[in-house]
Specification:
It is a single chain. The chain has 14 helices and seven strands. A five-stranded mixed sheet has the order 1-5-3-4-2, with helices on both faces. Strands 6-7 form a two-stranded antiparallel ribbon. It is elongated, with a radius of gyration of 26 Å. Strand 6 and strand 7 form a beta hairpin. By secondary structure, the chain is an alpha/beta fold.
Amino acid sequence: MSNNKNLGRGLSAFLDLDEPKRNENIRSEVIDININDIVANPFQPRHDFDEESLNALAVSIKRNGVIQPILVIKLANDKYQLVAGERRFRATKIAGLTKIPAIITEINEKDQLEIAILENIQREDLNPIEEAEAYRRLMNEFSYTQEGLSEILGKSRSHIANILRLLVLPEDVKELIRSKKLTFGHARALVGAENSSELAKRIVDQSINVRETENLIQSIKNSHYPTNNIELHEANNRYNKRYIDPEIQNIAQQISSMIELQVNIKLKNRGGIIEIGFRDFNELDHLLSKLNNSNKQ
């Protein structure tokens, strides 16, 4: 394959024109091309585009124009083939514009596919399964490593690893994720769980949130399967009493250092309770004094 790092950086330069040009195959000159002279990208891995999102983009383009040029290659007979920018191209058509700004590139078919996949990963509405499949394809077909993807895409290696783990889920569970009936948090909790298909259906049917899903799976691992919502609620309470969120624990320690007293934070629904322990009234007076001095500052 071509140099992956160079191609990835070239794509970054294309997506952000304020960045210096890094790929010699991508020109910096922007030209206006007639919409009718552009043909679709046969290597576009994505076929479903959200109509509402396209219409919203079309309204923006009609008002402000196309801010980021599309990427094309030159064909015979003064025609061009789209490489990247499919949504902008489609939205420009919807907006009724006749021309679109473009950058001409000279790359082979394999690199066209690679750029199309990389661009799709940048999409905000990409569901976790589509994202995972894109990572796997880049790794299998273009020899990317998780570290390489992390560097090029600006995503943490742990995020990429967690997304890739979703591909081991059964197909029916993946379909629930694709249709956004299950969130990434639900999906991550289901990886490695027994009877994940049955669990996924129950999560959807009973509108179980992510924390409750984690607690439910933990209960199953402890050989007790909650059979109804009452048991699930009780399991949540037992789990929450044992579980100490590392971030919350860190905050408690910071507050404790500031006021020089023992601090405990208990989560409750969407909020929580902060408990401050003191051994005698002298320590309580000391706390009051620190708070008063803080207000004066």
